[in-house]
Amino acid sequence: MSTYQFPGHFLWGGAIAANQTEGAYLEDGKGLTLVDLLPTGKKRWDVMLGKLDQFTPLEGEFYPSHEAIDFYHRYKEDIALFAEMGFKALRVSIAWARIFPNGDDLVPNEAGLQFYDDLFNELRKHGIEPVVTIAHFDVPVNLIEKYGSWRDRKLVGFFETYAKTILKRYKDKVKYWMTFNEINMLLHLPFVGAGLVFEDGEDQKQTKYQAAHHQLVASSLAVKACHEINPDAKIGCMLAAGMTYSYTCNPNDVMDAMEKDRESFFFIDVQSRGAYPGYAKRFFKENNIAIKMEAEDEALLKTHTVDYIGFSYYASRATSTDPEVLKNQTAGNVFGSIENPYLEKSEWGWTIDPKGFRITANQLYDRYQKPLFVVENGLGAIDEVNAEGEVSDDYRIEYLRKHIDAMGEAIEDGVEIIGYTSWGPIDIVSASTGEMKKRYGYIYVDKDNEGNGSLKRLKKKSFHWYKQAIESNGQNL
Length: 477
Ligand code: BGP
Prior knowledge:
Layout (H helix, E strand, L loop, with lengths): L10 E5 L2 H4 L20 H7 L22 H15 L3 E5 L2 H4 L10 H16 L3 E7 L5 H7 L6 H16 L6 E5 L4 H4 L1 H5 L9 H26 L4 E7 L3 E3 L4 H23 L4 H9 L10 H7 L4 E5 L4 E3 L3 H4 L17 E2 L5 E2 L1 H15 L3 E5 L17 H19 L4 E7 L19 E3 L11 E3 L1 H11 L6
Parallel strand pairs: 1-2, 1-12, 2-3, 3-4, 4-5, 5-7, 6-8, 7-11, 11-12
Antiparallel strand pairs: 9-10, 13-14
Helix pairs in contact: 3-5, 7-10, 10-13, 15-16
The site of 6-O-phosphono-beta-D-galactopyranose (BGP) has 14 residues, from loops.
Protein backbone atom coordinates (compact mmCIF):
# COMPACT_ATOMS: atom_id res chain seq x y z
CA MET A 1 0.00 0.00 0.00
CA SER A 2 1.39 3.35 -0.99
CA THR A 3 1.89 6.09 1.55
CA TYR A 4 2.18 8.88 -0.96
CA GLN A 5 -0.54 11.28 -1.92
CA PHE A 6 -0.71 13.21 -5.18
CA PRO A 7 -1.59 16.88 -4.77
CA GLY A 8 -5.27 17.84 -5.12
CA HIS A 9 -4.88 19.77 -8.36
CA PHE A 10 -2.42 17.39 -9.96
CA LEU A 11 -2.45 17.81 -13.74
CA TRP A 12 -3.04 14.29 -15.03
CA GLY A 13 -3.15 13.95 -18.79
CA GLY A 14 -1.25 13.29 -21.96
CA ALA A 15 1.20 14.97 -24.32
CA ILE A 16 1.39 15.22 -28.09
CA ALA A 17 3.27 17.36 -30.60
CA ALA A 18 1.80 19.13 -33.63
CA ASN A 19 4.12 17.56 -36.19
CA GLN A 20 3.52 14.00 -35.00
CA THR A 21 -0.23 14.34 -34.73
CA GLU A 22 -1.94 17.03 -36.78
CA GLY A 23 -1.13 16.11 -40.38
CA ALA A 24 -2.69 18.67 -42.79
CA TYR A 25 0.89 19.71 -43.39
CA LEU A 26 0.16 22.32 -46.02
CA GLU A 27 -3.42 23.15 -45.16
CA ASP A 28 -4.80 26.61 -44.37
CA GLY A 29 -1.57 28.34 -45.24
CA LYS A 30 0.86 26.28 -43.18
CA GLY A 31 4.45 26.38 -44.40
CA LEU A 32 6.89 23.47 -44.57
CA THR A 33 8.83 22.61 -41.44
CA LEU A 34 11.88 20.42 -41.10
CA VAL A 35 9.82 17.50 -39.85
CA ASP A 36 7.83 17.52 -43.09
CA LEU A 37 11.08 16.60 -44.83
CA LEU A 38 11.79 13.55 -42.69
CA PRO A 39 10.87 10.30 -44.40
CA THR A 40 10.76 6.95 -42.64
CA GLY A 41 13.70 4.56 -42.62
CA LYS A 42 17.45 5.01 -42.59
CA LYS A 43 17.43 8.30 -44.46
CA ARG A 44 15.43 9.79 -41.58
CA TRP A 45 18.39 9.24 -39.29
CA ASP A 46 20.85 10.72 -41.74
CA VAL A 47 18.81 13.86 -42.04
CA MET A 48 18.18 14.06 -38.28
CA LEU A 49 21.90 14.01 -37.64
CA GLY A 50 22.36 16.89 -40.05
CA LYS A 51 24.35 14.77 -42.47
CA LEU A 52 22.47 15.56 -45.65
CA ASP A 53 22.43 18.90 -47.32
CA GLN A 54 19.82 17.75 -49.83
CA PHE A 55 16.55 17.15 -48.08
CA THR A 56 14.06 17.66 -50.84
CA PRO A 57 11.13 15.24 -50.49
CA LEU A 58 11.42 12.46 -53.05
CA GLU A 59 8.70 10.88 -55.08
CA GLY A 60 7.51 7.58 -53.61
CA GLU A 61 8.98 8.13 -50.12
CA PHE A 62 6.59 8.19 -47.20
CA TYR A 63 6.58 11.34 -45.06
CA PRO A 64 4.65 10.48 -41.90
CA SER A 65 4.06 14.04 -40.71
CA HIS A 66 2.08 14.91 -43.83
CA GLU A 67 -1.05 13.15 -42.65
CA ALA A 68 0.02 11.88 -39.20
CA ILE A 69 -3.22 10.87 -37.44
CA ASP A 70 -5.19 13.75 -38.93
CA PHE A 71 -5.71 15.38 -35.54
CA TYR A 72 -6.14 18.66 -37.41
CA HIS A 73 -9.57 17.47 -38.52
CA ARG A 74 -10.37 14.97 -35.79
CA TYR A 75 -9.34 16.81 -32.63
CA LYS A 76 -12.90 17.05 -31.32
CA GLU A 77 -13.36 13.30 -31.37
CA ASP A 78 -9.94 12.78 -29.76
CA ILE A 79 -10.44 15.38 -27.08
CA ALA A 80 -13.79 13.81 -26.18
CA LEU A 81 -11.92 10.53 -25.60
CA PHE A 82 -9.29 12.28 -23.46
CA ALA A 83 -12.11 13.87 -21.48
CA GLU A 84 -13.68 10.46 -20.99
CA MET A 85 -10.42 9.31 -19.36
CA GLY A 86 -10.71 12.31 -17.06
CA PHE A 87 -7.75 14.30 -18.39
CA LYS A 88 -7.03 17.47 -16.46
CA ALA A 89 -4.40 18.61 -18.96
CA LEU A 90 -3.32 18.06 -22.54
CA ARG A 91 0.14 19.08 -23.63
CA VAL A 92 0.19 20.16 -27.27
CA SER A 93 2.58 22.17 -29.37
CA ILE A 94 1.83 24.97 -31.76
CA ALA A 95 3.26 24.47 -35.23
CA TRP A 96 5.43 27.53 -35.81
CA ALA A 97 4.76 27.35 -39.57
CA ARG A 98 0.98 27.45 -39.11
CA ILE A 99 1.44 30.87 -37.53
CA PHE A 100 4.40 32.13 -39.57
CA PRO A 101 4.57 29.89 -42.65
CA ASN A 102 8.06 31.07 -43.58
CA GLY A 103 9.22 31.94 -40.09
CA ASP A 104 10.22 35.46 -41.16
CA ASP A 105 6.81 36.70 -42.37
CA LEU A 106 5.71 40.14 -41.28
CA VAL A 107 2.15 39.14 -40.44
CA PRO A 108 0.85 35.94 -38.90
CA ASN A 109 -1.45 33.54 -40.71
CA GLU A 110 -4.95 34.06 -39.31
CA ALA A 111 -6.17 30.58 -40.29
CA GLY A 112 -3.37 29.01 -38.24
CA LEU A 113 -4.14 31.20 -35.24
CA GLN A 114 -7.80 30.32 -35.53
CA PHE A 115 -7.08 26.59 -35.48
CA TYR A 116 -5.43 26.83 -32.07
CA ASP A 117 -8.20 29.10 -30.79
CA ASP A 118 -10.64 26.36 -31.71
CA LEU A 119 -8.44 23.67 -30.20
CA PHE A 120 -8.04 25.49 -26.88
CA ASN A 121 -11.77 26.28 -26.77
CA GLU A 122 -12.53 22.62 -27.24
CA LEU A 123 -10.17 21.66 -24.43
CA ARG A 124 -11.62 24.29 -22.11
CA LYS A 125 -15.13 23.09 -22.93
CA HIS A 126 -14.12 19.74 -21.43
CA GLY A 127 -12.32 21.33 -18.49
CA ILE A 128 -8.92 20.30 -19.84
CA GLU A 129 -6.00 22.67 -19.24
CA PRO A 130 -3.87 23.22 -22.35
CA VAL A 131 -0.11 23.00 -21.71
CA VAL A 132 1.60 24.47 -24.72
CA THR A 133 5.07 23.94 -26.14
CA ILE A 134 6.11 26.86 -28.31
CA ALA A 135 8.66 24.91 -30.38
CA HIS A 136 8.60 21.15 -30.70
CA PHE A 137 11.17 20.15 -33.34
CA ASP A 138 9.59 22.13 -36.17
CA VAL A 139 11.69 24.97 -37.53
CA PRO A 140 10.18 26.40 -40.74
CA VAL A 141 12.20 25.21 -43.74
CA ASN A 142 12.57 28.72 -45.10
CA LEU A 143 14.58 29.67 -42.00
CA ILE A 144 16.92 26.76 -42.62
CA GLU A 145 17.44 27.55 -46.27
CA LYS A 146 17.77 31.29 -45.92
CA TYR A 147 19.63 31.67 -42.63
CA GLY A 148 21.10 28.27 -41.77
CA SER A 149 18.57 28.04 -38.95
CA TRP A 150 19.58 28.57 -35.31
CA ARG A 151 23.24 29.20 -36.12
CA ASP A 152 22.07 32.68 -37.15
CA ARG A 153 21.23 35.23 -34.46
CA LYS A 154 18.29 36.45 -36.56
CA LEU A 155 16.36 33.36 -35.48
CA VAL A 156 16.15 34.86 -32.00
CA GLY A 157 14.12 37.76 -33.35
CA PHE A 158 11.87 35.59 -35.50
CA PHE A 159 11.19 33.30 -32.58
CA GLU A 160 10.48 36.23 -30.27
CA THR A 161 7.92 37.61 -32.73
CA TYR A 162 6.28 34.18 -33.00
CA ALA A 163 6.28 33.62 -29.24
CA LYS A 164 4.83 37.06 -28.50
CA THR A 165 2.13 36.56 -31.12
CA ILE A 166 0.85 33.36 -29.56
CA LEU A 167 1.39 34.42 -25.95
CA LYS A 168 -0.81 37.45 -26.61
CA ARG A 169 -3.40 35.70 -28.69
CA TYR A 170 -4.01 32.88 -26.21
CA LYS A 171 -3.40 34.73 -22.98
CA ASP A 172 -6.91 34.05 -21.72
CA LYS A 173 -6.87 30.41 -22.78
CA VAL A 174 -3.43 29.08 -21.89
CA LYS A 175 -1.83 29.22 -18.46
CA TYR A 176 1.04 26.74 -18.88
CA TRP A 177 3.73 27.26 -21.50
CA MET A 178 7.04 25.67 -22.38
CA THR A 179 9.71 27.14 -24.64
CA PHE A 180 11.76 24.47 -26.48
CA ASN A 181 10.91 20.78 -26.36
CA GLU A 182 13.87 18.69 -25.15
CA ILE A 183 16.27 21.57 -25.68
CA ASN A 184 19.27 19.30 -25.05
CA MET A 185 18.33 17.26 -28.14
CA LEU A 186 20.11 19.93 -30.15
CA LEU A 187 23.41 18.24 -29.24
CA HIS A 188 22.27 14.75 -30.23
CA LEU A 189 19.94 15.34 -33.18
CA PRO A 190 20.99 18.79 -34.41
CA PHE A 191 18.67 18.87 -37.39
CA VAL A 192 15.61 17.94 -35.37
CA GLY A 193 16.52 20.09 -32.38
CA ALA A 194 17.69 23.16 -34.25
CA GLY A 195 17.45 22.72 -38.00
CA LEU A 196 21.25 22.46 -38.34
CA VAL A 197 22.73 20.99 -41.50
CA PHE A 198 26.52 20.97 -41.43
CA GLU A 199 28.99 21.94 -44.12
CA ASP A 200 31.90 19.59 -44.77
CA GLY A 201 34.69 20.37 -42.35
CA GLU A 202 32.54 22.66 -40.22
CA ASP A 203 33.37 22.80 -36.50
CA GLN A 204 30.12 21.16 -35.41
CA LYS A 205 30.64 21.75 -31.70
CA GLN A 206 31.12 25.46 -32.23
CA THR A 207 27.99 25.64 -34.38
CA LYS A 208 25.88 23.62 -31.98
CA TYR A 209 26.77 25.66 -28.91
CA GLN A 210 26.32 28.93 -30.75
CA ALA A 211 22.88 27.71 -31.86
CA ALA A 212 22.23 26.63 -28.27
CA HIS A 213 23.09 30.13 -27.06
CA HIS A 214 20.61 31.58 -29.50
CA GLN A 215 17.88 29.21 -28.28
CA LEU A 216 18.68 30.03 -24.66
CA VAL A 217 18.40 33.76 -25.33
CA ALA A 218 15.20 33.17 -27.31
CA SER A 219 13.84 31.11 -24.45
CA SER A 220 14.49 33.86 -21.91
CA LEU A 221 12.86 36.41 -24.21
CA ALA A 222 9.77 34.17 -24.32
CA VAL A 223 9.80 33.92 -20.52
CA LYS A 224 10.01 37.71 -20.30
CA ALA A 225 7.16 38.18 -22.75
CA CYS A 226 5.02 35.57 -21.05
CA HIS A 227 5.36 37.23 -17.64
CA GLU A 228 4.63 40.66 -19.09
CA ILE A 229 1.60 39.51 -21.06
CA ASN A 230 0.03 37.44 -18.30
CA PRO A 231 1.56 37.57 -14.83
CA ASP A 232 -0.54 34.55 -13.80
CA ALA A 233 0.84 32.30 -16.52
CA LYS A 234 3.67 29.82 -15.87
CA ILE A 235 6.39 29.10 -18.36
CA GLY A 236 8.88 26.28 -18.14
CA CYS A 237 11.82 24.71 -19.88
CA MET A 238 11.80 21.15 -21.19
CA LEU A 239 14.64 18.67 -20.76
CA ALA A 240 15.07 15.18 -22.18
CA ALA A 241 15.99 13.77 -18.79
CA GLY A 242 17.15 10.36 -17.63
CA MET A 243 20.04 9.92 -15.29
CA THR A 244 23.37 8.41 -16.25
CA TYR A 245 24.65 5.65 -13.99
CA SER A 246 28.30 5.01 -13.48
CA TYR A 247 28.97 1.41 -14.44
CA THR A 248 31.36 0.93 -11.49
CA CYS A 249 32.54 2.83 -8.42
CA ASN A 250 35.77 3.67 -10.21
CA PRO A 251 36.02 7.48 -9.82
CA ASN A 252 36.83 7.75 -13.52
CA ASP A 253 33.47 6.22 -14.36
CA VAL A 254 31.68 8.37 -11.81
CA MET A 255 33.27 11.50 -13.25
CA ASP A 256 32.29 10.40 -16.73
CA ALA A 257 28.66 9.87 -15.65
CA MET A 258 28.61 13.32 -14.06
CA GLU A 259 29.93 14.91 -17.22
CA LYS A 260 27.39 13.11 -19.38
CA ASP A 261 24.55 14.39 -17.21
CA ARG A 262 26.00 17.88 -17.29
CA GLU A 263 25.79 17.92 -21.10
CA SER A 264 22.04 18.05 -20.51
CA PHE A 265 21.92 20.01 -17.24
CA PHE A 266 23.92 22.72 -18.96
CA PHE A 267 20.80 23.96 -20.73
CA ILE A 268 18.62 23.94 -17.65
CA ASP A 269 21.34 25.52 -15.53
CA VAL A 270 21.12 28.50 -17.86
CA GLN A 271 17.33 28.50 -18.17
CA SER A 272 16.65 28.00 -14.49
CA ARG A 273 19.67 29.42 -12.63
CA GLY A 274 20.21 32.16 -15.19
CA ALA A 275 23.90 31.83 -16.04
CA TYR A 276 26.43 29.67 -17.85
CA PRO A 277 27.88 27.29 -15.26
CA GLY A 278 31.64 27.18 -14.63
CA TYR A 279 31.98 23.66 -16.02
CA ALA A 280 30.50 24.87 -19.33
CA LYS A 281 32.97 27.74 -19.55
CA ARG A 282 35.79 25.29 -18.95
CA PHE A 283 34.40 22.97 -21.62
CA PHE A 284 34.21 25.86 -24.10
CA LYS A 285 37.80 26.85 -23.33
CA GLU A 286 39.14 23.33 -23.70
CA ASN A 287 37.28 22.81 -26.96
CA ASN A 288 38.09 26.19 -28.51
CA ILE A 289 34.44 27.15 -28.54
CA ALA A 290 33.84 30.88 -28.58
CA ILE A 291 30.24 31.89 -27.96
CA LYS A 292 29.35 35.18 -29.57
CA MET A 293 27.09 37.12 -27.22
CA GLU A 294 25.45 40.50 -27.35
CA ALA A 295 25.82 42.99 -24.53
CA GLU A 296 22.40 42.38 -23.00
CA ASP A 297 22.44 38.56 -23.19
CA GLU A 298 23.85 37.78 -19.76
CA ALA A 299 21.46 40.15 -18.00
CA LEU A 300 18.55 38.73 -19.96
CA LEU A 301 19.41 35.14 -19.04
CA LYS A 302 19.85 36.14 -15.40
CA THR A 303 16.57 38.01 -15.09
CA HIS A 304 14.14 35.83 -17.03
CA THR A 305 14.40 32.32 -15.68
CA VAL A 306 11.75 29.64 -15.97
CA ASP A 307 8.96 29.01 -13.45
CA TYR A 308 9.06 25.22 -13.58
CA ILE A 309 11.15 22.38 -14.91
CA GLY A 310 9.36 20.34 -17.56
CA PHE A 311 11.02 17.08 -18.48
CA SER A 312 10.58 13.85 -20.37
CA TYR A 313 11.66 10.58 -18.85
CA TYR A 314 11.69 7.31 -20.73
CA ALA A 315 14.87 5.55 -19.76
CA SER A 316 18.12 5.80 -17.84
CA ARG A 317 21.61 5.51 -19.29
CA ALA A 318 24.88 3.97 -18.12
CA THR A 319 28.47 4.86 -18.83
CA SER A 320 31.98 3.56 -18.34
CA THR A 321 35.54 4.54 -19.20
CA ASP A 322 36.63 0.94 -19.66
CA PRO A 323 37.07 0.22 -23.39
CA GLU A 324 35.97 -3.39 -22.88
CA VAL A 325 32.71 -2.40 -21.19
CA LEU A 326 32.15 0.33 -23.76
CA LYS A 327 31.81 -2.31 -26.43
CA ASN A 328 28.39 -3.21 -24.99
CA GLN A 329 26.50 -0.25 -26.38
CA THR A 330 22.73 -0.53 -26.41
CA ALA A 331 21.12 -0.10 -29.79
CA GLY A 332 18.23 2.21 -30.48
CA ASN A 333 19.02 5.04 -28.10
CA VAL A 334 19.39 8.67 -29.07
CA PHE A 335 21.65 9.06 -26.05
CA GLY A 336 24.63 6.72 -26.12
CA SER A 337 24.50 4.15 -23.33
CA ILE A 338 26.06 0.87 -22.43
CA GLU A 339 23.98 -2.16 -21.48
CA ASN A 340 22.74 -2.07 -17.90
CA PRO A 341 22.60 -5.69 -16.69
CA TYR A 342 20.05 -4.83 -14.01
CA LEU A 343 17.37 -3.53 -16.34
CA GLU A 344 14.95 -4.80 -18.93
CA LYS A 345 14.50 -3.01 -22.23
CA SER A 346 11.70 -2.05 -24.59
CA GLU A 347 11.51 -3.46 -28.10
CA TRP A 348 13.46 -0.38 -29.20
CA GLY A 349 16.27 -0.96 -26.71
CA TRP A 350 15.20 1.75 -24.23
CA THR A 351 15.79 0.68 -20.62
CA ILE A 352 12.77 0.29 -18.37
CA ASP A 353 13.77 1.92 -15.12
CA PRO A 354 11.08 3.31 -12.81
CA LYS A 355 13.53 3.76 -9.95
CA GLY A 356 15.68 5.81 -12.32
CA PHE A 357 12.62 8.04 -12.76
CA ARG A 358 12.41 8.61 -9.01
CA ILE A 359 16.14 9.32 -8.84
CA THR A 360 15.94 11.69 -11.82
CA ALA A 361 13.06 13.63 -10.25
CA ASN A 362 15.00 13.91 -6.99
CA GLN A 363 18.13 15.02 -8.84
CA LEU A 364 16.27 17.73 -10.72
CA TYR A 365 14.52 19.01 -7.63
CA ASP A 366 17.70 18.98 -5.55
CA ARG A 367 19.42 20.97 -8.27
CA TYR A 368 16.76 23.54 -9.17
CA GLN A 369 14.32 23.73 -6.25
CA LYS A 370 11.49 24.57 -8.63
CA PRO A 371 8.29 22.66 -9.30
CA LEU A 372 8.72 19.80 -11.74
CA PHE A 373 6.28 18.88 -14.48
CA VAL A 374 6.60 15.41 -16.00
CA VAL A 375 5.54 16.21 -19.55
CA GLU A 376 6.50 12.92 -21.23
CA ASN A 377 6.80 9.32 -20.11
CA GLY A 378 5.61 6.09 -21.62
CA LEU A 379 6.35 2.85 -23.39
CA GLY A 380 6.66 2.59 -27.16
CA ALA A 381 5.48 -0.90 -28.12
CA ILE A 382 3.98 -2.92 -30.94
CA ASP A 383 0.26 -3.41 -30.32
CA GLU A 384 -1.91 -6.03 -31.97
CA VAL A 385 -5.66 -5.82 -32.36
CA ASN A 386 -6.84 -9.32 -31.39
CA ALA A 387 -9.64 -11.42 -32.89
CA GLU A 388 -12.17 -9.76 -30.57
CA GLY A 389 -11.08 -6.38 -31.89
CA GLU A 390 -9.32 -5.43 -28.64
CA VAL A 391 -5.82 -4.33 -27.70
CA SER A 392 -4.71 -5.94 -24.44
CA ASP A 393 -1.68 -3.79 -23.67
CA ASP A 394 -0.85 -5.12 -20.23
CA TYR A 395 2.87 -4.37 -20.81
CA ARG A 396 2.02 -0.69 -21.15
CA ILE A 397 -0.11 -0.70 -18.02
CA GLU A 398 2.75 -2.40 -16.21
CA TYR A 399 5.25 0.23 -17.36
CA LEU A 400 3.00 3.14 -16.45
CA ARG A 401 1.94 1.67 -13.13
CA LYS A 402 5.55 1.34 -12.03
CA HIS A 403 6.47 4.80 -13.24
CA ILE A 404 3.50 6.53 -11.66
CA ASP A 405 4.28 4.66 -8.46
CA ALA A 406 7.90 5.86 -8.66
CA MET A 407 6.62 9.41 -9.16
CA GLY A 408 4.45 9.02 -6.05
CA GLU A 409 7.53 7.91 -4.15
CA ALA A 410 9.41 10.97 -5.39
CA ILE A 411 6.58 13.15 -4.10
CA GLU A 412 6.88 11.39 -0.77
CA ASP A 413 10.62 12.16 -0.92
CA GLY A 414 9.61 15.82 -0.90
CA VAL A 415 9.84 16.53 -4.62
CA GLU A 416 7.27 19.04 -5.83
CA ILE A 417 5.59 17.72 -8.98
CA ILE A 418 2.65 19.57 -10.49
CA GLY A 419 1.54 17.19 -13.20
CA TYR A 420 2.08 14.15 -15.36
CA THR A 421 1.23 14.08 -19.05
CA SER A 422 2.17 10.69 -20.47
CA TRP A 423 3.51 10.64 -24.00
CA GLY A 424 1.21 9.92 -26.93
CA PRO A 425 -2.10 9.19 -25.16
CA ILE A 426 -3.34 8.38 -28.64
CA ASP A 427 -1.03 6.56 -31.10
CA ILE A 428 0.98 9.08 -33.09
CA VAL A 429 4.01 9.10 -35.38
CA SER A 430 7.26 8.22 -33.62
CA ALA A 431 9.72 11.10 -33.59
CA SER A 432 12.89 9.07 -33.88
CA THR A 433 11.77 6.43 -36.38
CA GLY A 434 8.80 7.98 -38.15
CA GLU A 435 6.98 4.73 -37.60
CA MET A 436 3.37 4.20 -36.59
CA LYS A 437 4.12 0.78 -35.20
CA LYS A 438 5.92 2.29 -32.20
CA ARG A 439 2.81 3.08 -30.23
CA TYR A 440 2.34 4.80 -26.87
CA GLY A 441 -1.41 5.35 -26.80
CA TYR A 442 -4.37 4.47 -24.64
CA ILE A 443 -6.21 4.88 -27.92
CA TYR A 444 -5.26 2.79 -30.93
CA VAL A 445 -5.22 4.43 -34.36
CA ASP A 446 -5.73 2.26 -37.42
CA LYS A 447 -2.75 3.26 -39.52
CA ASP A 448 0.38 1.35 -40.47
CA ASN A 449 3.99 2.22 -41.24
CA GLU A 450 3.27 2.80 -44.90
CA GLY A 451 0.40 5.14 -44.16
CA ASN A 452 -2.43 2.69 -44.85
CA GLY A 453 -5.45 2.35 -42.59
CA SER A 454 -8.81 3.89 -41.81
CA LEU A 455 -7.49 6.17 -39.01
CA LYS A 456 -10.29 4.81 -36.85
CA ARG A 457 -9.79 5.22 -33.09
CA LEU A 458 -10.12 2.27 -30.68
CA LYS A 459 -9.85 2.26 -26.88
CA LYS A 460 -7.14 -0.08 -25.59
CA LYS A 461 -7.20 -1.87 -22.27
CA SER A 462 -4.90 0.83 -20.87
CA PHE A 463 -7.60 3.42 -21.62
CA HIS A 464 -9.75 2.05 -18.81
CA TRP A 465 -6.76 1.60 -16.55
CA TYR A 466 -5.59 5.22 -16.93
CA LYS A 467 -9.12 6.48 -16.38
CA GLN A 468 -9.22 4.73 -13.04
CA ALA A 469 -5.69 5.94 -12.14
CA ILE A 470 -6.81 9.53 -12.72
CA GLU A 471 -10.17 9.08 -10.98
CA SER A 472 -8.42 7.83 -7.85
CA ASN A 473 -5.77 10.57 -8.09
CA GLY A 474 -3.05 7.97 -8.46
CA GLN A 475 -4.18 5.73 -5.63
CA ASN A 476 -5.72 2.97 -7.70
CA LEU A 477 -2.99 1.81 -10.05
C1 BGP B 1 10.75 12.66 -27.20
C2 BGP B 1 10.03 13.68 -28.01
C3 BGP B 1 8.73 13.26 -28.56
C4 BGP B 1 8.63 11.79 -28.75
C5 BGP B 1 9.16 10.93 -27.66
C6 BGP B 1 9.17 9.44 -27.94
O1 BGP B 1 12.10 12.71 -27.51
O2 BGP B 1 9.86 14.89 -27.34
O3 BGP B 1 8.46 14.06 -29.66
O4 BGP B 1 8.12 11.29 -29.84
O5 BGP B 1 10.46 11.33 -27.39
O6 BGP B 1 10.11 9.14 -28.90
P1 BGP B 1 9.79 8.22 -30.12
O7 BGP B 1 8.61 8.77 -30.79
O8 BGP B 1 11.00 8.27 -30.97
O9 BGP B 1 9.57 6.88 -29.54
